Amino acid sequence: MKKIALSILLLTSIVHSQSNDQKMLADIYKFSLTQSSCYSWLDYLSNKIGHRMSGSVGAEKGVVYTKQQLEALGVDKVYLQEVMVPKWVRGEKETAYILDKKTKTNVPICALGGSIATGKNGLTAEIIEVQSIKELESLDPSKVKGKIVFYNRPMEPENINTFRSYGRCVDQRFSGAEKAAKMGAVGAIVRSMTLRLDDFPHTGMQSYGDLPKDKYIPTAAISTNGAELLSKKLKQDSSLKFHFKMSCEMQQDVLSYNVVGEIAGSEHPEKIMVVGGHLDSWDLADGSHDDGAGVVQSMEVLQIFKRLNYKPKNTIRAVLFMNEEFGGKGGKKYEELSKQNKENHIFSLESDCGGFSPRGFSFQCDANNFQKVMNWKYLFEPYLVHNFVLGGTGSDTSHLTSAKIVKAGLSPDSQRYFDYHHAGNDRFDAVNKRELELGAASMASLIYLFDQYGID
Q1: Is 60 exceeded by the pLDDT of residue 8?
Q2: Does residue 7 register a pLDDT over 70?
Q3: Could you please report the per-residue DSSP string of 382-426?
């Protein structure tokens, strides 16, 4: 009889907990869809401040603005973490054209982050087209020397997860110039990392690896339409020339900041749960999807808990990281300070995949904690958030090394993300208010559940 009574009591407790969780998630989504500030915050970041390139005036203004908004929420603590960041300046708008026997055809390009300039008269040379670094390295160096290497491997369209397509071709952008220089090339041009055919070149970080500075060569991205045209013309005339002109330069490192706001835990203040995105952006647009969306969603998580009068058991900390796009110095500094302060992080959640409709989360954790997440899946299904997988979770939080931690990344619908990623059309008008708010609600819901039930 005692066993039966105990079973009934246990079952009643479980049902009660499930009911409480369902109500809390409903309250979170309702608040986010009716009273959220994240869209207005993004409006200011994008339209009043503009791009927030690491080391720029815009980045400084972004730090000041987000700190002020976190303070206005009335959270327990708001502060800045100093971090030295690189400063690369694009300079004048880049120009380029294809020069064949009959015509000079302009094409859209943009310098890749960290590239050197071409010199004030630009660079003109013959082109050699390759599909990969592997193909380049298989060539006789005499076929490459003195030429501009044109990497033209497109993102694979067959992958439903477009981040897989991105990951399988981004090596040519990051390491293309270094590998081309080692083969004797004088410049490198890379097809933009997007599935769409358009006239927007997509920038991004590149590296010269271990090359000495006197071996650096200028490197740029060409729009997908430009890449298609250049490839077509090369098939008609392999001896045509390409000209491009860039005035970018690397300057001295400058002081910047991570912005941190937190709500202290009511039971375990020493256990920290991080939610974050990166405050810096590229400079071709205002970085609304990458990653203004993640910044304001992370801030919104704190606002949701404050306005719903939810008192978390663990400390909830929103971190707006600086310099993710150009070396990840903010994430590294955060972890360095965390170790110095002997902090214990039990959970992290990063939003850096755009402000599109949330579809689920990716996780880095052991089997027990992943099963716990799968047991919560039914709570998210009414909100069409259903894709829970093991996988990558975000670059800034990847540096966290607490003894036992569950890491998560928000996974929005990715089909349109690379239409805007690092390009001149990543503007505020590309973000849908409702989709942005649904993402913030999903993030707050997952944090709530981990706060309630902890990690195994």
Answers
A1: no
A2: no
A3: GGT--EEEES---TTGGG---SS-EEEEEEE--TTHHHHTTSTT-
Distance CA 273, CA 291 (A): 20
For 4, other C-beta atoms within 10 Å of its C-beta total 8
Task: Decide the pairing of beta strands 314-321 and 358-364.
Answer: unpaired
Neighbours of 63 (CB within 10 A): 20
| Contacts for 142 with CB less than 8 Å, ≥ 6 apart | none
Neighbours of 134 (CB within 10 A): 10
Alpha helices (runs of H) in 308-342, residue ranges in sequence order: 329-340
Please state the rounded mean pLDDT for residues 256-270: 98
* Residue 187 lies inside a defined structural domain of this protein: yes
Count structural domains, the chain. 2
List the structure tokens of 68. 């002020």
Structural domain span for residue 340: 29-87+252-453
Specify the DSSP class assigned to residue 442. H
Mean of the per-residue pLDDT values of the chain: 96
The pLDDT assigned to 321 comes to 98
Q: What is the layout of strands, in order, in the sheet containing 123-130? A: 104-106, 95-99, 241-245, 123-130, 148-151, 187-191, 219-222, 109-111
Residue pair 323/54 in contact by the 8 Å Cβ criterion? yes
Q: Catalytic annotation on 135? A: no
The whole-model pTM stands at: 0.94
Q: Which two tokens stand for residue 327?
A: 């070396």
Residue 14 lies in a domain: no
Residue of 94, 178, 300, 324 with catalytic role: 324
Query: Residue 18: its pLDDT value, please?
Result: 79
Work out the number of other CB atoms within 10 angstroms of the CB of residue 214. Answer: 5
Question: Where residue 436 sits, what CATH number does that domain have?
Answer: 3.40.630.10
